[in-house]
Amino acid sequence: MTLMNTLRDRLTKRAAFKRTQFELANLPVEFAINDLGICPADAKKIAAKAVYG
């Protein structure tokens, strides 16, 4: 990969991570826990796993 491709890939993943983290952290608590089985406080960990593997 060239430097530009690597940089573009990392920036794309970082944007996806931030967007996913924001969405998960701002879910209503009752919906997140009861329907999805997740805690909004774990948004960073969940987003990282979803985007970076």
TrEMBL record:
This is Uncharacterized protein. It comes from Octadecabacter temperatus.
